[in-house]
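Weekly modeling sync, notes
Attendees: S.R. (lead), two postdocs, one rotation student

Agenda item 3: backlog of single-chain predictions. S.R. asked that every request posted to the team notebook include the full sequence so nobody has to chase files. The rotation student volunteered to paste the first one in as an example of the format we agreed on. Action items at the bottom.

Example entry:
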Amino acid sequence: MDLTLRNARLLGGVSTEPPLDIGIEDGRIAAIGPKLGAAGKQLDLGGKLVAPSFVETHIHLDKSCILDRCDSSTGDLEEAIKQVALAKQQFTADDCYQRARRALEKSISHGTGHMRTHVEVDPTVGLRGIEGVLRLVEEYKWAIDIEICVFPQEGLLNNPGTDELMVAALERGATVVGAAPYTDSNPHGQIDRVFELAREFDADIDMHLDFGNTADYLDIEYVCEQTRIYKYGGRVAVGHVTKLSTLPPQRMDEIGRRLADAGVAVTVLPATDLYLMGRHQDHSVLRGVVAAHKLLKLGVNCSLSTNNVLNPFTPFGDCSLIRMANLYANICQVGTRDDIRECFEMISGRSAQLLRRADYGIATGKAADLVVLDCSTAEEAVAELAVPLYGFKRGRMTFARHAVEMYRP
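Predicted structure, as returned to the notebook:
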């Protein structure tokens, strides 16, 4: 073996069972079992939890870390879009690269090994965000697999020149088509065009959708219908959908069943949704975070993700998906053991399913993309904000962090 991880507790195992060893060879898991007889490097994990690397399904690397360039006062969605639109005028490809790299390294250090990043194009920023992030895809493949979702934050049909930029980004390396229909003069027209582009480039779809404080107008059912028409089930995801959090249970169940039938996944973005929603209220303030764990019970695949970091959409963040799982559990009052475990799954296995990553998991033959956490179970990881101690990409260690030591008198 090239490397043997000794005394590991595997995700999904029982904490009372004895730990196992994981043998890694040629970047893949070659064997799992007790006391493996193997030469090569050894690392004793002392009973710590080993999980597949975390999967970030929705983050904006290109506009991260720009708080010092923006002036936010109302803190609402409209202001955030305007402030970032102004900041984008000064973006360069190298500037996007440098800021994105800062956020990316934070993600890696917190155990993320797979990522879908949403990158904007429009006549103001052109392809500079795409160019900056594309550099990272190759440069950081030793630590993380990155795919780019290109999308029109400020509209598509109402913003001449954006369609051509979407096509150019797909031709240059973006593999997912995104959308933000709520900023367009014709929301359904933008959705139609996104499905057309997806079919033309054989690309998956990942939309910002139904981002607002009321459910007076919803696009979600139209997306489900287009998914059925295009036979795109399993290849469409929608992010935010904060409007669904305002629906009564019966209507929410109805939409949940339709999402499940259509094969449309949902990504909840706890930090941004909590920060931006309810700004119109001065008491009994809306949380705006959709109860994803309830959608899971209806058959909808869901993920939890970071979204924005250190910009007007979310002025906080360290790119820790464990933190997102914990924050979500608090906001949505998750309490049962099974549901807490699902919070962990929504940053790992379910997110990998959303990104259609078949070579994922802890099993013989799978890629050795792993994270070691300072805990023994997934439930502990979420509840106690367990610290990632080691990360591995194809069997090679990508980061290490020492556990806390107590210096007793």
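Discussion: group reviewed the output briefly. The chain has a mean pLDDT of 96.
Action items: rotation student to repeat for the remaining queue; S.R. to check formatting next week.
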